[in-house]
Write a structure and sequence with these properties.
single chain; Non-ribosomal Peptide Synthetase Peptidyl Carrier Protein, Chain A
């Protein structure tokens, strides 16, 4: 499940990080490519693609900082959905 999540995230981010080989643990905010509009697009992408709801308590920048962090957040949200 996690490898599929990472693949989807990487494909989405590739359209914003053209000609840059973004690593799974690289901080996308520190690279300077990210603005507030991108942050909103990222949240909408996560909700639509993975059919999860990003709650206010999920809006910690650390959850969105790296591909690995996003993958963990989505896997956690999917697990919560599957258990309910």
């Amino acid at each position: 499940m996690e490898s599929e999540i990472k693949t989807e995230i990487k494909q989405f981010l590739a359209s914003f990080f053209k000609n840059y080989d973004l690593q799974d643990d690289e901080d996308i905010f520190s690279l300077g490519f990210v603005n507030s509009l991108f942050a909103m697009q990222l949240i909408l992408f996560v909700e639509k693609t993975f059919q999860v709801v990003i709650e206010n308590e999920d809006l910690d920048m650390d959850n969105f900082r790296t591909i690995n962090a996003l993958t963990r957040l989505i896997a956690q949200k999917k697990g919560a959905v599957l258990q309910s």
